[in-house]
Specification:
This protein is mostly helical and about 140 residues long. About 90% of the residues lie in helices and about 0% in strands. The chain is built from 5 helices and no strands.
Length: about 140
Amino acid sequence: MDFVSKFRQISLRAASIALILAVLAAVSGHWPAALGVLIGCLVALINFRLLAQSIPRLLELPFQAARKGAAVRYILRYALTISVLLMVNANPNLNVWAAFVGLVLIKAVILGEAVFIFARQKLQSCLKFSRGERGDE
């Protein structure tokens, strides 16, 4: 799977989970939590897109220029995150903890996929090993 399709897959999964969480929160009457999750996920998707756009560009630059560019982009992305969290915290109609959940949703999707792939590979290797032990090959 190439870089662009993997980026889209992760983004769609995170957005789908955020939408499901927001709908569940809205149905249960927790509108500040629903809006917080959506805002957090939106900012996380913007940060993820900025990161995905910068990586190919930075790989083409010389080391010092790439290092400086990566540091500047890092600071800008986290300044965006901090400013959104401060805005959400200042607004009584939004839940800051739900926004935090939305912000870490992409990381959770990536970690969940990695755990799933690891468990699948371990299970496959265990099944191959046991099949060879019994003489089924």
